[in-house]
Write a structure and sequence with these properties.
Sensor_HK_TwoCompSys, HATPase_C_sf, alpha+beta, iron, about 425 residues, 13 helices, rod-shaped, Heat Shock Protein 90
C-alpha cells in the first residue's frame, strides 16, 4: 500500500513541476528577450518602446489565460484562441528582434498543454517556423538566406515533431500509469476492507468452531456414556436379577454376582478411558478381530447365549476411529440381542474388502418391525439403540443397514471405509 502511495505522490510531484515549467518559461523567455533587445539590439530591430509594449501585452496574454485561469486548460475552443494569440505575439516579437526566439520556443511546450490530438503537431510546425526565423536573424531575404531558413525550419520541425511524438507516447503512458495506480489503490482499499471483514468473520468462525467443539464433545460423551456406563449398568442389573432368581443355587448365584462385579470394573475402566478420550482397552492390547472374538466370547459366557465370531478377507490395521466404531457397533448390537432378542445363537462376521470393512451381527431371536423402530430416536428405556449406532457409523462415512421381521431374527450390518491406520 505504501509503495503505491509513493508512486502516486511521485507522479503528482512530476505533474506539478510540469505545470510550474509551463507557467514560468513564457515569462523567462520574455524577460531574456527584452533584456537582450534592450542592451544588445540586433541589426534592423524595431524601435525599443513598441517592442517592450508588445512584450508586456504578451506577458498579460499568458498571465490571463494560463496563470490566472489554470482551469481553462480543459476548454478546447478557448485554448485554441489562446494558442493562436500566443503565436501571433511570438511572430511580432521575432520580427521585432530575433532575441525573442527564446519566447517563441514556448510554443513547443504549450502545444502539448492546450492543444488536443493532432493539432499539437500543427502548433509544433508553426512554432518551428518562428524559431527558425529567429535563428536566421529575420525573414529570408536572399537565396542563401532562404536555404538557411529552410534548413532551420526542417531541422526544428523534425526535432520538435520527434520530441512531440515521444511526448505524446509518454503522456499516454503516464495517463495509463496514473489510471493503473488509481485502480491499484482502489483494489488495495477494497482488500483492506475485505481484510477487516475477514477479521470479523474469522472471529465469528472461531466462536462457531468453539461452540461446535463443545457440542461435538457433548455428543462424544453421550455416545461413550451409552457405550460404557449404560451398557455396563444394564448388564450388571441383568446379572443381579439373575442372581436374585438363583439365590437357592449357590453356584449359579456366585457366577451371576461375579459377572456383575466384572462388568462393574470393566465399565468403570471404560468410563475413565472415555473421559480421557482414549481408545477402548480391548483395542489397546489386541487387533480388531481378536478384540471382537474376545468380546463375543465374554458376552456369550455372561448371557448364556451361543456366540460365534468369524473373519473373512485379509485383516489389516485400520484407522483408530474406524476400529472404535466397529467395536462399539458390535457392543451395541450384542447388548440389544441380550436385552430384546431372546436369541439362542448369535453370529458376528468381520469382512475385510478392498475399500470397505463390514461387520455383520445376526441373531435368531424374536425380531422386530424395522419400519416402526427406524423413526424412533430413543427407546422407552432411555437408550439410544439403533439411532446411536447409525450416528456413530455415519460419523466416519459409513452406513448401517438393519434387516428384521417379527419372529425372523435380526441382521445388523455396519459398513465403513477401510482407512489404513498403522503398522501391521
Amino acid at each position: 500500500m505504501s509503495s503505491i502511495s509513493d508512486q502516486v505522490d511521485r507522479l503528482a510531484a512530476w505533474e506539478a513541476r510540469e505545470v510550474i515549467l509551463h507557467r514560468v518559461l513564457p515569462y523567462f523567455g520574455l524577460a531574456v528577450g527584452a533584456l537582450l533587445a534592450t542592451f544588445a539590439p540586433a541589426p534592423g530591430a524595431f524601435p525599443l518602446a513598441p517592442t517592450l509594449a508588445v512584450t508586456a501585452a504578451a506577458g498579460c496574454w499568458v498571465t490571463w489565460f494560463v496563470t490566472l485561469h489554470p482551469g481553462w486548460v480543459g476548454r478546447r475552443a478557448l485554448m485554441a484562441a489562446y494558442y493562436v494569440g500566443l503565436l501571433a505575439f511570438a511572430a511580432v516579437l521575432v520580427l521585432a528582434s530575433p532575441w525573442y526566439g527564446l519566447f517563441a520556443w514556448v510554443g513547443f511546450l504549450h502545444a502539448f498543454l492546450v492543444l488536443p490530438g493532432r493539432w499539437r503537431f500543427a502548433g509544433v510546425a508553426a512554432t518551428a517556423v518562428l524559431v527558425a526565423t529567429a535563428q536566421s536573424v529575420g525573414p529570408p531575404s536572399s537565396p542563401s538566406h532562404w536555404l538557411l531558413w529552410s534548413v532551420l525550419v526542417l531541422f526544428n520541425m523534425g526535432v520538435a515533431s520527434g520530441v512531440s511524438w515521444f511526448g505524446t507516447i509518454t503522456e499516454r503512458q503516464n495517463a495509463n500509469r496514473k489510471q493503473l495506480i488509481e485502480e491499484l489503490a482502489e483494489a488495495n482499499r477494497r482488500l483492506a476492507e475485505t481484510a477487516r471483514e475477514n477479521e470479523g468473520l474469522h472471529a465469528q468462525l472461531l466462536t462457531q468452531a468453539r461452540e461446535a467443539g463443545v457440542l461435538d464433545e457433548r455428543q462424544r460423551m453421550a455416545r461413550e456414556i451409552h457405550d460404557t456406563l449404560a451398557q455396563g449398568l444394564t448388564g450388571i442389573i441383568t446379572q443381579l436379577e439373575a442372581a436374585e432368581q438363583t439365590r437357592d443355587r449357590s453356584a449359579d448365584w456366585r457366577r451371576h454376582v461375579d459377572n456383575a462385579l466384572a462388568l462393574a470394573r470393566e465399565s468403570l475402566t471404560e468410563a475413565r478411558r472415555s473421559v480421557r478420550a482414549l481408545r477402548p482397552e480391548p483395542l489397546e492390547t489386541a487387533r480388531l478381530p481378536d478384540a471382537l472374538a474376545e468380546l463375543t466370547e465374554r458376552w456369550s459366557t455372561i448371557n448364556g447365549v451361543r456366540g460365534e465370531m468369524s473373519t473373512t478377507g485379509d485383516p489389516r490395521p485400520l484407522h483408530p476411529e474406524i476400529e472404535v466404531t466397529l467395536l462399539r457397533a458390535a457392543q451395541e448390537a450384542l447388548a440389544n440381542v441380550a436385552r430384546h432378542a431372546g436369541a439362542a445363537r448369535v453370529g458376528l462376521t468381520l469382512s475385510y474388502m478392498a475399500d470397505v470393512v463390514t461387520l455383520d451381527v445376526r441373531d435368531d431371536g424374536v425380531g422386530f418391525d424395522v419400519a416402526e423402530q427406524s423413526g424412533t430416536p430413543r427407546r422407552p428405556d432411555g437408550g439410544y439403540g439403533l439411532t446411536a449406532m447409525r450416528q456413530r457409523v455415519a460419523r466416519v462415512g459409513g452406513e448401517l443397514a438393519v434387516e428384521s421381521e417379527p419372529g425372523g431374527g435380526t441382521a445388523v450390518s455396519a459398513s465403513v471405509p477401510a482407512l489404513h491406520g498403522g503398522a501391521g
